[in-house]
Design goal:
Elements (H helix, E strand, L loop, with lengths): L1 H20 L13 H19 L10 H14 L1 H4 L8 H5 L17 H10 L15 H14 L4 H19 L6
């Protein structure tokens, strides 16, 4: 019995080595994963995020100050990939695989604010999703989470108004009364 187990493991290693060495699996972003591969990768990603986000304490995400502050950050850092209400797909959004979710048109599938916080903070390997910490503080990341939670179904005008308010508030906070 032991002989068969060792032989089986050796065969698996030879096959795995061959697949890797001879480049049988195409890693090109424009060549989609096999259905089984995609399901497995999504399972690994979702479980990894959920386990690591399990103990994260979520603040009050309905706080208007958090939402407004998150609007400008989202506008500056996220729209190239995740788009905004009324925005046409960018070249970056279209070229990434897996394609990033458009937060204004669908749920993002991360299932909880804690998971979303974890993803923004830590990023996800081989997806194009960067880790935003550092240089951003946990407070700034929670602001983005609060804003993203408001995006689903937001109109283009509502989005533009919120970004404008956020930009004006940011400018007012930095205005020291002197001309520059």
């Amino acid at each position: 019995m032991k002989k068969y187990v060792i032989s089986g493991l050796a065969a698996i290693l030879v096959i795995a080595f061959s697949v890797i060495w001879f480049g049988f699996y195409n890693v090109a972003a424009n060549d989609k994963h096999y259905a089984l591969t995609l399901e497995l990768l999504e399972l690994v990603r979702n479980r990894s995020i959920s386990v690591r986000a399990n103990d994260i304490v979520v603040p009050d995400l309905n706080n208007p100050k958090l939402i407004t502050a998150g609007a400008i950050s989202y506008s500056q850092m996220c729209t190239g990939c995740h788009l905004a209400p009324g925005m046409k797909p960018t070249e970056l959004h279209q070229g990434l695989y897996p394609q990033p979710p458009n937060f204004s048109q669908s749920t993002h599938g991360l299932h909880s604010p804690a998971n979303l916080f974890w993803v923004i903070k830590n990023g996800i390997k081989m997806t194009g999703m960067p880790a935003w910490s550092p240089p951003h503080t946990e407070q700034q990341i929670w602001e983005m989470v609060a804003f993203i939670n408001q995006l689903d179904g937001m109109s283009e005008q509502q989005y533009q108004d919120l970004v404008k308010v956020s930009a004006n508030e940011t400018a007012a906070e930095h205005d020291d009364g002197h001309s520059h």
